[in-house]
């Protein structure tokens, strides 16, 4: 007779390090009625053959938070759960070969400092004091992380499992989940030992996550890579050194050559991420097996030859050691290399905690985040970098996942430069006028799969991928972006903006429902306005433009990347007996932005619309005999309109406007120019300036709060915050920057103390200054306050600006 209970509050499918951590953290949160199902023994998937490295390094703020938490948890876990832990905190060195790599390191040092970690940059002359066996050719410096180390993955998983069991959670080994169905508002999970019902289910199935997802109608965007590492026999010189100093070498990563080298007892472990990599289970002659527990792929040493030779040149003692064993196992990859943690898109009460490329170092933090998602419906840190809803349907295409997974693997340690666009998996979604703007010189970058013009090149401009590999402001694009910004300022510019997420809300009661969900007012028919959605803690969930066509008929418009996230947020709060309907109509429409002082003159030549209608109004009209919605708004901060068209009508409308605009100086402009223009106006960008890391009040959005409303989501928390005082405030900064503008999460300093962070930064071509938006300690948020902004390791003077736009502070041009 099976011991499997008939019901649990949560069922977790998958018993690797991540699944065990999720169970542990759920139990820790008081949810002890939870069950983990594992088809074999715990760790049977990627966990058992993982190398077990535990870095804290990341250029992502949220992933650094997650990895920092993991490292902190692992240091005390053995004592917490009374289980022996083989965890070595050795520190690590990341070697740099270029100025750009050192800039990346310096930025991460600043982020780490803000999170309480004391990372350091070593000069070439200091590296050997930490790692005496390294050769110094070609090095510009290194990042030293004293918190890095390695752990036994099996012990980690068993320790988390023991801790969960001790708190009352249950684990069933050799009990595979075989299917799932929805019945009476709960999930029924099938196993050979019977069925188990649950309120919530978590897909933590590792490289089988795609197969598990199919049970829920979910096509998980992932693929599987073959990752190899080599274990070497004892090196006498290393053994003698370790015995003398009493500790292991720091883990060494030559990130520009793309491998790590770790001391393994008295030998070494070399793990390359080779460009000539191999995907598995992606062709008919290599199908995914039903069970791959505790199995490996055949060795493929030839792929690693260059990396082995490079490592021997860097650490010559490695060349004296014999090869003792090869490990070649499957590792799952999402298209951007980040895991999937959070709500399963479109599936009620289902979550994902899967597709971990670095599952051991992220497992602790992932379990914390997943438990928060399940038990509270929200997380402490904004986790958009890992949210499954960051992808939409296009990303589940098998060929796309394979191409992107191989690209990420082959560039695992690559720097992610702001102007660079990765070439694999492109042209998934094209604007109706893609060919036209391409002919005008558009240099494209994908946004939720949509190819948008980033900037427009002219003949002779360097448009090579190599030219974009810099953190500097300067590049072949700089003059062109300036020209585009000044054309919008002095004449007119047109920007093709496909992919705006768009939802139609219509029916009796729609206005009242929306009023209770947003912080502010709902616009009257014929008007459009910004609406902010807060969570129960008063934090910024999202921003949407609300276009009111009738009293109970709206279009809600939001960012392209927010399509699934925002639609799910709205659906989650729909009343069960609603008389109104909510539909995602994103694919039906396209949009162009026409901005600049000549934009009215251009439109007057092609439409009989009432162009005297004021800012924040909209109207239906025709251009070239085609319907469109003409909306009097401008994210560029100039006189302007958005032209919302049906997809099939877009080209005709664009052609008419383009032809009419030539005598008025109409110029195409791209996303880079738009970002410069919006930052001069202090307009916030989603998941940078607007995220759940900040409350509505911290974000400087109180003017969008209607305190007179009886209730709205987050009101109680915001009222309490207002009474107690806001701890930090949104500010605009003018920065005396050098070659680089402030990237996201640059540290703000005052009197030698960290006092805030930037949320975005760029050069303002209309004001001729480097501008940053950020969150600053409230007592320093007074205009004229002098602070410092840390940009790639150097601090630059910055001045807090008045709470108004830098450019056209009274919005006279916008309202013209």
Give a structural overview.
With 816 residues, the protein is an alpha+beta fold. Helices cover 25% and strands 28% of the residues. The protein is built from 19 helices and 38 strands. Strands 4, 5, 6, 12, 13, 14, 15, 16 and 17 form a 9-stranded mixed sheet that branches. Strands 1, 2, 8, 9, 10, 11, 18 and 19 form an 8-stranded mixed sheet that branches. A hairpin with a 4-residue loop joins β35 and β36. α1 packs parallel to α6 and α13 (478-490) packs across α18 (671-680).
Layout: helices, strands, pairs:
Blueprint: E1 7-13, H1 17-28, E2 34-37, H2 46-49, H3 61-81, E3 87-88, E4 92-96, H4 99-114, E5 120-122, H5 124-130, E6 141-145, E7 150-151, H6 153-166, E8 170-172, E9 179-183, E10 186-191, E11 194-203, H7 209-214, E12 223-232, H8 236-245, E13 251-254, E14 259-264, E15 267-272, E16 279-280, H9 305-314, E17 323-333, E18 340-343, E19 350-354, H10 359-376, H11 398-410, H12 434-439, E20 442-447, E21 450-456, H13 478-490, E22 492-496, E23 501-506, H14 510-517, E24 528-534, E25 540-550, E26 553-558, H15 563-572, E27 581-584, E28 589-595, H16 599-604, E29 618-623, E30 626-631, E31 640-646, H17 650-661, E32 666-668, H18 671-680, H19 715-724, E33 728-735, E34 747-750, E35 753-764, E36 769-777, E37 786-791, E38 794-800
Parallel strand pairs: 1-2, 1-11, 2-8, 4-13, 11-19, 22-32
Antiparallel strand pairs: 3-7, 4-6, 5-6, 9-10, 10-11, 12-15, 12-16, 12-17, 13-14, 14-15, 18-19, 20-21, 22-28, 23-26, 23-27, 24-25, 25-26, 28-31, 29-30, 30-31, 33-36, 33-38, 34-35, 34-37, 35-36, 37-38
Helix pairs in contact: 1-6, 1-10, 3-6, 3-10, 13-18
